[in-house]
Amino acid sequence: MESRDKILVLENSLKYLSRNLVFPKKEQDVGKEFYLKFAALSFSTIMFLVGSILHLAVNIKRKTYINLDLDLALAISLTGSYYFNFSYLKQIKNTIEIYKKLSDFQSFGAPDDFHVTNGKLNRIAKYHYVYIISAVCGLCIAPWLEYEKCTEENLELHIEEVCGLIGGMWLPVDLDQVPYKQLLYFFQVYSSGGTVEHLILRFKHVKRIFLDALRRNSRGQFKEAVQYHVTVTEMADMVNSSFNMCMFVHVLLTGAILGCVGYRLIKSYSLGAICLFIGWFVSMVMVCFSGQRLREESVSIGDAIYKSDWLTLNKDLERDLVLVLMRCQKPVFLRSGPFGYMSYATILTVGNAGICVSENVLKTSYSYLTLLSRTS
């Protein structure tokens, strides 16, 4: 029997997080040392954020508006990343508890497809890690590929933008002098540097136990399935308590970033802008896809029970069945604050910045593009 305190899910994801100092090597090691390492890693990259915001402010003050679109996208992206990191840190113990509950196979047994699904998610984690590294490499290589273009713009527009950096940066030093420029470039490279799927698997397992209890006309097994259903629903509530506001900020910022980066791509080709665009968009699609599947799987339990041969059940079990059907009519969501929940529809409504959540992402992005074009 496996210990209830041992995490058996998403091993690769947790290994990569641990490697980057954002998850403890052992789930019991959430102490002062872990928090200090996390804080040191986060604050060691703060100059990139400060420099980007200062660059944006200086350009606005000078009324040059050079690369305003990318400055906005980077400032928003970095600010959002810091929020995600510290929000995650605040909920780290709750997150570990979720993983422990998902790894508990003593109480209700293991889902039939656990090993297959967990193995699949571990492989996807590897692919996703490679994808992230590739995107970071693209952001790092792009400035050097576009170095000549940047110098030509400086001569043509009579400006003094520093070429060869991942994003615009202003600091009270001459960034074109050695070693500032080289140090900042590598500093920025350093800075750049399926819980829901397991819930879905658990809901599938709950459905199988419910149907098995109905097939056997066993009220005892049915009560066990009800208890299991309540436990999995509580796990979903824990996930929402950990990630609800992160999802809200993710939705809020993605539209703004897509709008700014989209404007840059309309003006001219930019490898860095493409990497930023793909990174945020793919991240949003992945989360929305899982959120949609979670909703559908939680509702499918009631549908499967309704389609079963419930007319042959004993009276006591029929009464229990009515209560379960009423509960299953309320879907389980991956929530995103005031925006509601993550689903396919969220992809169309993302990035509204709180103005009107019913408009789709194309309209929202277009509003950002229009604003930027008027200031150019």
Describe the structure in your own words:
By secondary structure, this protein is mainly α. It has one domain. Helices cover 72% and strands 0% of the residues. The protein contains 14 helices and no strands. The chain has helices at 11-19, 32-43, 46-62, 68-90, 92-102, 114-145, 147-157, 180-192, 195-216, 219-267, 271-307, 315-328, 344-349, 361-375. Helix 4 (68-90) packs antiparallel against helix 10, helix 9 (195-216) packs parallel to helix 11 and helix 11 (271-307) runs antiparallel to helix 12. The longest helix is centred in the middle third of the chain and has 49 residues, at 219-267. The radius of gyration is 25 Å and the shape is elongated. It starts with 10 loop residues before the first helix and ends with a helix.
How is this fold's topology laid out?
Blueprint: H1 11-19, H2 32-43, H3 46-62, H4 68-90, H5 92-102, H6 114-145, H7 147-157, H8 180-192, H9 195-216, H10 219-267, H11 271-307, H12 315-328, H13 344-349, H14 361-375
